[in-house]
Amino acid sequence: MTQVEFQERLREHYDKLPVNQRHIADYISEHYERVPFLSVQELSEATAVSVASIVRFAQRIGFKGYSELKDEVSHHLRNRMKQSDAFPLASHSGGDESIFLTVANQDIQNINDTLRLNNPELIAKAVSIINQTSHIYTVGLGVSFLLAQILAYQLRQIGVYAHVLRNDDSTFLEQSIYFHEGDSLITFSFPPYSKDTLYVAEQASEKKMKVIAITDRHSAPILPFADVALLVRSQNMLFTNSFSAISVLINGLVTECARKNISQAKVTLETIQTIAAKEGKLLNNGK
Fold this sequence. Notes:
Elements: H1 3-14, H2 19-30, H3 40-47, H4 51-60, H5 66-82, H6 99-117, H7 120-131, E1 136-139, H8 143-157, E2 162-164, H9 172-175, E3 184-189, H10 195-206, E4 210-215, E5 228-231, H11 244-260, H12 262-278
């Protein structure tokens, strides 16, 4: 069982779990690599949940007990370690690392984890939704707004009609009045989760729009409204979310959308360049 499959199993059972067992699911989801090294007593202390509840949690999601769950995670991690990292710098173990190298290694780990969390079938499903939609809305607050803006821009560059929701002269909910069945919404939702983003996702779901959630965990509050959930690791040394893995995911989605509809992407790009040239916005030969 891969980490993606394990996380999917957690998601399938999450809504039916008691509150205390959801704490266990959240902890394991966020500290997957630590599970093989945690005894049931240590996990109990880390989650403030009883040993008996941990055993019941493991049984509820399909294992005989915590030992079998732990063995399954250990087996997957051993197999994963035999494979070369997508980015070898992540295994660098220098003595006096500069802060720059430390940050780079963190972002590389974020990218590697994100690659493992999103299998090709999941990406293909998101791409299919985007390419079959008449109008894409993107939404996010704070740093997530910048990401939503970038995604909308890149989608327009390949011929996808995309529009970012702005929380300035009108609220997200006011703008959701114009949602229609057949449209789709792509949300960026990372801690601290915004209620406004959740509300607009709920509105989209009620109007039978497809919702793609880009978020950080299977227990994220946006997931009940999502048709597709793409998980991204955004660990950072600062108090904000890191952009690196999210940028990779955005570029990957847009590139695959263009590849699936290359003729539309090519025509759109040529049209944009022609308009820019007519308006004198392009430099010729570096002049």
